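Posting for a labmate who doesn't have an account.
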Amino acid sequence: SMLVRVQVGVVGEKLERELNRRGFTLGHFPASMYGATVGGFVACRSAGQASTRYGKIEDILTCLQAVLPDGVVINTKTVPRKATGPDINSLLLGSEGALAIVTEVSLKIRHLPESRLFLSYTFDSVSAGLYAIREFMQEGIKPAIVRLYDETDTALSMTALGYEDVSGCLLIVVCEGRERFVGVEAEIVRRACKNAGGRDRGERPAEHWFEHRYAISYNQSPILSSEHMILDTIEVACLWKDVVSLYEAMRKAIEPYGTVMAHFSHAYPEGISIYFTIIANADDEIAAYDGIWKAAMTACLRHGGVISHHHGIGRLKAPWLKAELGEGYKLLCALKKQLDPNNILNPGVLGLGE
């Protein structure tokens, strides 16, 4: 049935390596996979770099075992689909340990791809690149990697990865899978990019990014270790109709605090995620940091975005979760009170139990 049963303490990279040894892949490659566990994936509804093809963790998980606050162990059934009332998997996915402790999961696996093609295009504007992505995503294809960098992120990120021969807004696309399908998928991408005014940069920028795709996360220590420096990321998502206005509004809201850049990834026929990176220097780092998040979340909610696409809520974003969920937040609070009346499971996350 192409499933793997795994305990949640397993590190993602070690699971992927073991699957690869047997000819399979999970297809879940978050930048943190060398340290993040399967339990962490489930707790925050994580996404990997290849989520456009393989899905987020909620698309990969089929069933789970969890322990409730009173010690009762629950097991959900492994079947392709069901119509048995509200879905318990969905209830616990993303609950960040506030409702139960997930101990085991069954996950979908795929055969390792037979073929992989790399495509790179540059555009004069973010909006032109986004138009191309929307066009090929709405054709029904699912490239593994889709990443569009704005001009600032193109310059800084690719330089940080050791590749400086590129400018403008860089789009990286990686198509993989059965060889007979990959070429067709790549041709659809090429046509959409050409129609949107993209300039073909060949395979090398995408190949270089792929070869060094985890490096940038480990290049942040010098910045974070410097006095008064701030570095953080904010990931949101929205529909296609809102993406340009959301990007511009959030960038404008954050820019007074420092340098802001963004890339667009995790693409869907309906919309896309925006991933902002902020680098700032402030005498009062805490006040500036709080200001950045308040400005970003306020702009996100005002312009049709969801306040997290795959990093979760935790305590940092909890002040905005009520506005995000509306009346649905009362249901979440009621679930917490019913399941965990003594507030013993991860109090404070999602704004619960405080």
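Reply:
Got it, the structure tokens are right above this. The longest strand covers residues 229-239.
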